[in-house]
Request: fold
Amino acid sequence: MSGEIFLAFSTGNEIPVNQPRPPEGESKTMIEEVKAVEDSALSSLFEATAECVEEAIYNCLFIAETMQGVEGHRVEALPLKRVKEIMKEYGRAHMI
Reply:
């Protein structure tokens, strides 16, 4: 698949920010030690996350209803019967 981006935040490493500058004439080390989990250990987590997001998107699309907005603008709900036919055609019927 292409176009996938994963972003994670962790409290595992404390990296100081906005620290006062050292007095003039003193140098400050620019090296921080960071602990991290090896990438290969995260593959299952990334896969599970992608599957959860995919399922959430399907759920949102399939429960959406036809809506009418300002000045008569109308957005039709997905034709679920047709979507099922298309998914079967591409061997992905198990997803719905």
